[in-house]
Every structure is written in C-alpha cells, then in structure tokens.
Amino acid sequence: MKKKDDGLTDCARSCLKDGRTCKEKECRKWIDHREDLNCCLISIRNSVGPMTLMETGKRLGLSFVRIRQIEKRALEKLSKRL
Predict the structure, then answer these.
(1) pTM assigned to the model
(2) Shared domain check, 7 and 38
C-alpha cells in the first residue's frame, strides 16, 4: 500500500499518533507550543487559516514589533527578487 504524502516527518507522525509533545529541541521543526505538540509541521497542518502578526508573535514567543520587523524584511527581500 502506498503511503500518503502528508508533508509530515516521521517524528511528527509519531507525535500525532501517540498524542505526545516532541522533546527534540534540536530539530529544525521544533517550536515551543504545546498545543501543536511542539512541531511547526503539526501547527501548519492544524491551522484553520492565516494568523495575525499578534497571533504569530504569541505562538513564537516574540513581540508584535519583532514579528513586524521580520515581515518587513521578508517583503523587502521578495520585492528584490521579483
């Protein structure tokens, strides 16, 4: 039987299956957000739509101002490439 490509890593699938939060803080996908089992891939999968900058900051433990700075820099980089 062919496995469905759901975009999750084996670790994320394991966390979902067991319902446990990820302890692998060295993982590039790890975030400090228990509601999403500490995994950004699970967070994206469970997302119900776009988040505001305030919601993003709260989720990542950053201020609204810092998230706004990151957004501004990313938009500047994108505009240079277009």
Answers:
(1) 0.57
(2) yes
User: Do both 63 and 29 map to the same domain?
Assistant: no
Tens of pLDDT, residue by residue over 1-11, are 445 667 788 88
What single-letter amino acid sits at 59? Answer: R
The alpha carbon of residue 41 and the mean position of all alpha carbons in its chain are separated, in whole angstroms, by 6
The one-letter code for the residue type at 52 is T
Across all residues in the chain, what is the average pLDDT? 84
Instruction: Inform me whether the pLDDT recorded for 32 exceeds 60.
Output: yes
**What are the angstrom distances between the C-alpha of 40 and each of 66, 76, 79?**
19, 24, 26
Do 73 and 45 fall within a single domain?
A: no
